[in-house]
Each structure stands twice: as C-alpha cells, then as structure tokens.
Specification:
The structure holds two protein chains of two kinds.
Chain A: E1 18-29, E2 32-43, E3 47-51, H1 58-65, E4 73-78, E5 81-82, H2 89-95, E6 96-99, H3 111-121, H4 126-139, H5 155-167, E7 173-177, H6 185-200, E8 204-209, H7 212-218, E9 221-226, E10 229-235, H8 236-240, H9 245-252
Parallel strand pairs in A: 3-8, 3-9, 6-7, 7-8
Antiparallel strand pairs in A: 1-2, 1-4, 4-5, 9-10
Chain B: H1 2-19, H2 22-44, H3 50-75, H4 93-105, H5 109-117, H6 119-124, H7 129-156, H8 162-184, H9 186-194, H10 199-207, H11 212-221, H12 225-254, H13 277-291, H14 293-317, H15 326-337, H16 341-345, H17 350-353, H18 358-389, H19 395-417, H20 432-447, H21 450-462, H22 465-506
Classes of the chains: A alpha/beta, B mainly alpha.
Chain lengths: ~270, ~500
Amino acid sequence: MTTPEPHVAESAVRAGPGGLELRGLRKAYGPTVAVGGVDLTVPAGSFFGLVGPNGAGKTTLLSMAVGLLAPDAGDAAVLGHSVWQPASTNLAKQALGVLPSGLALPGRLTGRELLTYLGLLRGLTAPVVAARCDELLDVLGLADAGGAMIADYSTGMVKKIGLAVAVLHGPRVLVLDEPLEAVDPLSAMTISAVLRGFTRRGGTVMMSTHVMALVEQLCDRVAVMDHGAIVRAGTLDQVAGPLGLEQAFLDAIGSGPVERELSWFAC
Amino acid sequence: MVRLLIALRGTITRNQLARGSTAAIWTAVGFGLASAAGTLLIGIVHGPSVSGSLDRVSAVLLLWLAGQLAQAALNGGDAALRPELLALLPLDRRRLAWALLLVGMCDPALVIVAIAYCAVIAVAAGLGVAAVVVAAAGVAGLLVLTSVAVSLAGGTLGPGARRGRDLGTVVVAVAISFLAVAATLLPGLLSRLQAGRWPGLAVAVRVLPSGWPGDAVGAAYRGQWPLAAAALAAPLVLAALLAAAWPGILARRMTMSGGSSHRADHAGRRRLLPATPAGAVAAKEIRLWLRDPVRFTCMLIGLIVGVGAAIIPRLAAGTSGLLPFSGPLTVVIIGACATNLYGNDGSSLWLIIATPRAAAADVRGRQLALLLLVAPFAVAETVALTAWSGQHALWPWALGLLIALVGGAAGLAPLASLVSVQPLDEGGNPTPVWSLKVHIALIVVALTAAPAAAVLALGSISHHSVVSWLGVAVAAATGAAFVIAGGRAAARRLAARQVGVLRVLAA
C-alpha cells in the first residue's frame, strides 16, 4: 500500500483574489450531512476541478454556491459579491454563469428560442442577443439543430445548449456541474475548447467531474471531496504528486484498487 | 408475477406518497369519495319510475366510465407501474400483459369507482332480492370491463412516441371537454331521464356498456331472465375481447420509438412582442401554451366547454340564456388551469433564480401572455354568442363578467401558481392532486367576478340599466386591480420563495 500524500493546507489555495469563495457552507437532510461546513477559494482566472465519488456532496455544494439551494449555514461570494445576501445577490448572479446537473430546460423551446428568451430576460438588447445566438449555435455545432426542440436533443446537445445558456450574458465566473458527463468525444472537445478560451481571457471556471483525465487535461487546481468535506485541495501538481491524480484521489478517499468480481460470472 | 408486480407498484406508490403532500393527497381521495357518494345518493333517492331511475343512474355511470378512460389516456395509464419499466426484461409479452391486467384490477382507485357503480344496486334495493343479486353481478362485470378498458386506454395513448402522445393528449382534451359539457348539464338531463321525457337519450345511455347493469336489473324486474343474463354477460365478453387485443397494444407501447419534431428556425424573424424582459417571458409563455400538451389541453377544454355548455341547451331546448356566459366560462376554466404554471414548468425555474431581477419580469410576462392568449377569443366568443342569443338585456352581464374574469384570471394565475405548487409526475402528466387544485381554482377564479356580479345583480333587480353598466365599470376596476395587485404579490412571493419552490420541483 502506498503512503498517502500529506494533506495540502487550505491556505495554499488562496493564491489570489477569489473568483469564487465558499465560506462554511453546510447542508444536512435530516440526520444525513451532505455538506459539512466547506471552506474553499477558487482563485480568479483559474480552472478549478472538483472531484469526488458519487454522493460526496459535489452537486449539493455547487448548488449552494450558485444560489440554487439554500444552505443551512455559510455563504458564497462571486468576485467578492455575496450570493445569499439580498443587497449583493444580483451583482453575484450578473457575474455568474451556471450549468447545473439534473435541472431541466424548457423542452418545448428550440435552442435559439431559449437563448433569445434568456438573453432578453437578462436585459441584453435584441441585436446583441441575436448576434450571440448565431455565434454560440455556430461555435457549439448546434446551428443545424436550430429548429429542433430541446426535448428532442441528444445528451451532448443538451450539455452544449446548457453551456450556451451559461455563457450568453458574458459572465466572469462559470460553475459547471459535470458538464461532460455522457457527452460524445466531439461534443466534449468543443466544450473543452470553449472553456479553455474562457479562462485564457481571464474567466474563472469551477467544474465538477468524475473524469480524472479531463481534470488533468483542463484544470490547474483541484479539490477532492468525500463525505461532504474537502479532503485535499491545491494545484494540480500538489494534489496529484508523482503517482498521478487517480491514485491521489483513491488515497484521499481512503480507497484501494478495486479488483472484485461477481461470483456468477462464467470463468 | 402478479404478486411481484403488485408489490412493486405498492412500493413505488408508498415512496411517491412519502415525497408528496399528505394533506393534498387525502383531500384528493376525499374529493373522489364525495363524488362517489353523490352518485350513490342518485341511486338511493330516485323517482317512482324504475325505468327512469335506471336511465338516470346509467347516465351518471357513463360519465364515470368515460372519465376513467379519459384520465387513463391523459396519464398514460398506471402512474406508478409504467410498462416501460419492464421493457428490457426477458418476459413473455403475453404473460406480462395478462399480469398487468390483473394488477390493474387491484388498483385501490377502483374502490371509489365501485362505490359510484353501487348506485345501480341502490335502485335495485327496492325491487327485490333477485334484482339486488343481478345488480351486484352487473356492477362486478362493469368494474372488470372498466379496469380492462382503462389499461387499454392508457396503453393506446401512452407516453411512447412524443408526437403520438401529444396528439393523444389533444384527443383526450376533446373527450374531456365533451364530458365536462355533459356534466354541467347533468341536473337537467337527469330530471328529464327520470320523467321519461328524453327517450332518445335514455336509449343511448342504456345501449352503452355503462347502461348494461341497469339493463340487467330492468330485465330481471320484468322477469326477462335470458335478456338479464345477456346484459350480465355482455361486459365480460367485451372485456375479454379487449383483453385479447391488449398484448399487441402493450408490445407496441413498449417498443414505440421517440419521434422528433422540427420547427422552422426563426432566426431573423420580426418580433411581435417588445424586446424587454417581460416581453421575452410573454413570448416564451405563448409558445409553451401552444406547444405544451398539458397547457394546450386546458385551452382546448376551456373553449369547447365554454361554447358547448351554452350552445347545446340552445340547440336542444331553445334556451338562449346561457349564450352570453360562454366567454366568461371559458375564461374561468383556462384561468383555473393557469394556477399551476410553475409546477407545470418543473425544475426549469432554476433559470429564473439564476437571472438577477427576473422575478418581476417573469410574473408580468406570464400575465401578459395569458391576457394575449385568452382575451381575443373570449371577447369574440362573448360578442358573437350574446348577439346570437338576442338577450340584449344581458349585454352588461356578458361584458362585465368577461372583463372581471379576464383580469381576475391574469391576476391570480402567477400568485396561485406559487401556492401549493404541484409538480407533474415523472411522465410529465398531471397528478390527481394537480387536478384537485385546478377544480378548487375554478371556484376561486369565478369569485374574482363577485364584486362586479353584485352590482350587475343590483342593476337587474332594480331594472336600472345605468346601474347595470356601472357593473361593467366595476368589473374593469376589479380586473385591473387583480392584475396589478396579484402581479405585485406574486413577484414578491417568487423572489422570496423561489429557491424553496425549486427544491419541491426538483425533488
């Protein structure tokens, strides 16, 4: 058994002004603590990966961070603006783009109709909305699906239109919950390219995922979450170490290699 | 397999009930039991004519049977035990089909239907023991037929292909509309049937399957035992024929592929609504009202029932008094259906939460969409039918109630949509509690016209047309007040509670 990597102190993450700061976020469902008082800083301009096993609390944490789920305690701040304080929540949401997991989009609208509706709802002018719609649908490969309703989209198309929704208004911080789950490789490459371009221009991305290869490819910082707590956080090199991110992840959650087989499988 | 499927359905139902609102569910059950008890009372309190009494009960049982079929077609059958759950299992389709039919006969909802059907037994109670035995057998046979027919109705128009489901929903909407029209005319129909004053309708209700238990009781009362036996056997024979077709229908449903629809891409198309946040919401809402089957169904039902309930008495009995009220009735129905908009939209509410300052625009946009959709055809309907009625003294009533109700419906819709939010079921269909909320909303929406109606009534009683037309002014004032105050209250409530509402919808 390998020696676990030493836990990286939270203070090492605070390398610059926070694009997204999570302070003491906590959520319990009855006796089950889904998120137990998480403090985390996503530096501005970073591409931050949040990894963890199923049920670790990633979606709950991100939902509280972006204002979609009321925390039992704690707060989140986007570029210094509190998400949960009434006086600053609108400023936070103006700077924030969100791609949640498990929440619906209006299936009876086409992709263009959805983007037009949301762009105008955000106060963008009609010409700006139209121009951005055209560019987004073209860049994301959805131009040919202009007339199809979202209810008929494939999984990859839904993720891409969701990303379009998140970036339409020009946010400075993106929070994406499993943006590439069940997405085909071509769609994944498209989404990755858009996100890399976003961070190159100074944007901040926080992304949850199960795919370690994706984190190693895109992220410069990573946090490992397990049982509602951050068990390891830091730069990619700090967390992955010499053994690689997947081994570091397994060590962080206290799991060894899985080699079990099912007894009724034929030899 | 039957025991396993019953246990599976029981587990799913228990988990669904645990996640839902207990009070709302029990209220829905209470409503069903009250309706069934009312039907039973129709059988208990009947006139001296045996034939007339049986005709009356048969007419009401027809509404129950048709209602069960329409509900199943709208919901795609059993909400807990969807056949699609079992599609990938290597089960013999014929064996599965028979098992699902038997499971359907164990549906607790059939208890409520059985209580209603016992109205036949109540009529037979005064005709002797033999008549009661025949009535009980007839009710049992009709229950079997109902259960089998419900399975087929759900399977035929079930949630397989989305386009097929959308079309099925529209068909069901038309059927429900005609049922609702018949229900509104029920008291008059029943009294005519009891008195034997409508032979044609009496024959129609007795010829249909819901009338066969009544036919059996009547034949037994007259000593016509072969006819009684035939009437008892008929529902079972029909059930057997339907059951024979069920395996094929089930197989088709379980392998139905999802079709996609394609709309023209409207890039560059000229906007008809202002390019403002509220205008954007209104445009979105209008599209959803026209494309979403649940909403479109409601509009269709409102239009058909509103027009049908007024026109049928005119055509059947020359009664013109209801024609001016067709438009107001349409508005009440559509307004009631619009009291669960956020529930119908599901977890897409997150888009509003994630957008700064969107709550007020969302509320105003929804109100604007409702006004734009409902007002034009309600006005046209009211003007045309009031003119046709020749009831010139009723113009203030027609216009006053219409204006009050349009404002009341638009004012209440977003606010009521944030009270007791009812998510659709996993298949995107209305739940029984959703239906209950809409039924209650019918009364609440109608009450928004109460102030105007009071002034209109004063004008009619005093025979002062000035007072009557003052009622129209009162209607305009109350309508506007409901729109403005209701919208403000809804926007405040949405801004304050939107995260909590999302939690309910995303559960």
